[in-house]
Every structure is written in structure tokens, then in C-alpha cells.
């Protein structure tokens, strides 16, 4: 049986999030004010269950799930309550988003604490990147227009901070100016840096504004990124002559301290602000890779390893889209989209912990969680009817 073989079960995962804490958030945010059926906890449980159970979640799917007896039995909801998909849509459009934001932050706090007792990286390395979603974009109420036509299809951007195990911060952007990574990624980096001053951030070269690098250095926030080869700089000092020594899969050309600038006037303006530029080359095709950081107290290999781990967030995005159907937009209302985003991240954290501790793949983790939930429902029903579940699940 799945539950007996697992190093952590779905029941144990759910128990990490005490009901009383969610109830406190509900009272604090007044999410249930004048609401009888679709209260905060019901919506929370409904979306969580739907994301795991359904390959392609939708409002009609959530209607069927909510009205099913086994769902209400699992989460101890009123069996007499029923809803229509239109009611779910309307509720998502107006429900207090703070309830889901705080529930997401609470989930991360509890799950990351649990992870700390098991295995975490020694370095607090935060990977930050964005992903665009355009499915059902022609129905979006708000979004970035694709192309020049104002009446064209729209898309939204999710920018996520990922700590190597769990998504620790996420934001939605719908304004067209936020197509630029120079706006979205720094916003998440600076917001998270205020929460965790010991974090080191790694992001791709889509962020290329020198002012972002300077601001990070001025506030003492470490970062590692890529720089476009050929970028202008002024040499301050040579840290190491590479002599083409091997660093990972690359060859080191130079490790230098530099000033970054676009013209000579900026040399004087930013004379006190320097960065570390590591220039490498692929030994086979000769392609150069430039890495920029403000970390001077670690060796070249560690800088490159920090950047290499940035790929983890690409894998995380692929998992979201392939296994949790993140590309599909269940709600076209900005508030509903935000609710779905937070709930998707909460569900993702459960799957990631289950996957890691049971040493299985993403698809297997989602499938086994679904099986365990249904097994749990059967056990609860058998026990509720006065039977012995052990006679069924030997």
C-alpha cells in the first residue's frame, strides 16, 4: 500500500498545517464575512484537492468536486451544501486575497521548518525567474497585450523565488511594461531580500540594468548572474589569470574586479562601485560565458556552481505546467488568478516535499498523493460506518 511504503504520507503532510492556524488567518482577514457556503477553508480545500485530482482543472470541475459526498467527507464540510460553477467564479473574483497570501506564507514557514530538520542547502541560495502564461488569454480581464494591437491576446507573468526546495515568494504581473525582466525579477529580489538578509540571489541575464546590480551591492545583498559577452567595463584589478584552467565544464580566461558602465562619464560617477567578472570559455566551440557577482570571498568554482543551480527554477516551472496544469487559467479575473497562483504554490510545496522524502519523480508523486487521498477517504468512510479499515487495507 502506498501509505505504508512512503517515508511521509499525505496525512502527515496535511497535519503539518494545523487547522487552527488557518482559522486564525480567516478571522484576521475576515474572509468569511457574510459567507455561508464558499468560506475561505472550503475554497482552500477545494482548489488543493482539484489541483491534485484533475489533469485539467476548471470551474465546472471544481463544481463537481465540491458537490461530491467524498470531498465533503474528507474535509469535514456540510454535506447539504451545493454550489454552481458560476458561484465559484464569482466568489474567486471577490474573496479576500490576503487570506490565501497569508496561508501561502504560513505553509512555506511550516514546510521549510520541517525541511530544516531534514536537509537544506548550507548556502541560502534563492533562484529567481519568470514564466509567461497565455492560455485562455483572449478572455483575461487584465493582462499584457501580445503584439501591437490593443485588442490582441493577453498574457500574464508569474515571477517566482525558489530556494532549491520550495517556492518562497511569488508575484503576478499584468502590466505591459512588466514584460521586461529588469522590472519583475528585481522587484521580487528586493522584496525577498528585506525578509532574508542572508540570502544570495541568482538570476539570468534578462536583468541587465547596472542600477539593479549597484542597488543590490549597496544594501549588502549577494548575487550571481550572467553578463552579455562584450559588455563595457573598466578593469580595477586582476584577481586571477585564468590560463585556461578547467572550472567545471568550462575554461577560465579571467577573474577580475571591474566597474560596469556604458560610457566614460559613468566611470567617475560610480568610481567606488565594483563587481567581480569571471570570463570563461567552452573548450569545444569557444563560446564565452561571462558571470557577474559581488561575492569576492568565494572561489570561481563556487560562483559557477551558484549560477548552475539557477536551472532548478526552470525545472520547477516545467513541473508546475506539466503536473499541476499551471498553464491553464481557471479564473480570468485578477483576484481569482492570484488565488489560483497561491493555491498552486501551496499544492506544489506539498508535492515537492512528498517527492523528495519518498525519493520518487514528479508524476509519481502527484499520482500517489491522489491515490492516498482516495484511500484515506475510504478508510474514513469504513470507520465512520463502524467497520475496521484494516480488514480492507491489509
Question: What would you note in describing this structure?
Answer:
This protein has 394 residues and is an alpha+beta fold. 45% of the residues lie in helices and 19% in strands. It contains 15 helices and ten strands. Strands 1, 2, 3, 4, 5, 6, 7, 8, 9 and 10 form a ten-stranded mixed beta sheet that branches. The longest helix has 25 residues, at 334-358. The chain is elongated, with a radius of gyration of 24 Å. The model is unreliable at 1-5 (pLDDT under 50).
In round numbers, the mean pLDDT is: 86
**Overall outline:** elongated
Secondary structure: helix percent: 40-55%
Question: What is the string of helix and strand elements?
Answer: HHHHHHHHEEEEHEHEEEHEEHHHH
Number of helices: 15
Radius of gyration: 24 Å
Beta fraction of the residues?
15-25%
Give a short account of the largest sheet.
10 strands, mixed
What would you call the structural class? alpha+beta
Distance between the termini: 8 Å
Amino acid at each position: 500500500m502506498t501509505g505504508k511504503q512512503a517515508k511521509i504520507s499525505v496525512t502527515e503532510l496535511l497535519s503539518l498545517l494545523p487547522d487552527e492556524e488557518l482559522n486564525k488567518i480567516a478571522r484576521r482577514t475576515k474572509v468569511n464575512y457574510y459567507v455561508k457556503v464558499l468560506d475561505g477553508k472550503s475554497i482552500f480545500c477545494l482548489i488543493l484537492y482539484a489541483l491534485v485530482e484533475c489533469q485539467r482543472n476548471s470551474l465546472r470541475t471544481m463544481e463537481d468536486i465540491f458537490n461530491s459526498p467524498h470531498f465533503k467527507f474528507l474535509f469535514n464540510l456540510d454535506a447539504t451544501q451545493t454550489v454552481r460553477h458560476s458561484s465559484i467564479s464569482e466568489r474567486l473574483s471577490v474573496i479576500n486575497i490576503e487570506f490565501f497570501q497569508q496561508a501561502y506564507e504560513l505553509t512555506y514557514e511550516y514546510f521549510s521548518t520541517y525541511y530544516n530538520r531534514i536537509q537544506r542547502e548550507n548556502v541560502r541560495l534563492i533562484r529567481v525567474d519568470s514564466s509567461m502564461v497565455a492560455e485562455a488569454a483572449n478572455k483575461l480581464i487584465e493582462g499584457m497585450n501580445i503584439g501591437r494591437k490593443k485588442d490582441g491576446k493577453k498574457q500574464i507573468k508569474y515571477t517566482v523565488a525558489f530556494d532549491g526546495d520550495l517556492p518562497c515568494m511569488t508575484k503576478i504581473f499584468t502590466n505591459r511594461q512588466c514584460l521586461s525582466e529588469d522590472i519583475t525579477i528585481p522587484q521580487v529580489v528586493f522584496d525577498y531580500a528585506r525578509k532574508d538578509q542572508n540570502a544570495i540571489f541568482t538570476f539570468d541575464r534578462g536583468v541587465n540594468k547596472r542600477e539593479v546590480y549597484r542597488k543590490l551591492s549597496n544594501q549588502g545583498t549577494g548575487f550571481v548572474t550572467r553578463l552579455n559577452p562584450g559588455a563595457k567595463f573598466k578593469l580595477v584589478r586582476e584577481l586571477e589569470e585564468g590560463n585556461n584552467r578547467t572550472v567545471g565544464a568550462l575554461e577560465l580566461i579571467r577573474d577580475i574586479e571591474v566597474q560596469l558602465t556604458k560610457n566614460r562619464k559613468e566611470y567617475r560617477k560610480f568610481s567606488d562601485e565594483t563587481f567581480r567578472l569571471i570570463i570563461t570559455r567552452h573548450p569545444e566551440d569557444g563560446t564565452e560565458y561571462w558571470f557577474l557577482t559581488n561575492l569576492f570571498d568565494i572561489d570561481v568554482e563556487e560562483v559557477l556552481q551558484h549560477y548552475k543551480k539557477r536551472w532548478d527554477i526552470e525545472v520547477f516551472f516545467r513541473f508546475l505546467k506539466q503536473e499541476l496544469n499551471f498553464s491553464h487559467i481557471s479564473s480570468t479575473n485578477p483576484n481569482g488568478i492570484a488565488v489560483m497562483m497561491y493555491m498552486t504554490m501551496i499544492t506544489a510545496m506539498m508535492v515537492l516535499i512528498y517527492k523528495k522524502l519518498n525519493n520518487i519523480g514528479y508524476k509519481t508523486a502527484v499520482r500517489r498523493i491522489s491515490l492516498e487521498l482516495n484511500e484515506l477517504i475510504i478508510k474514513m468512510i469504513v470507520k465512520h460506518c463502524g467497520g475496521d479499515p484494516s480488514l480492507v487495507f491489509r
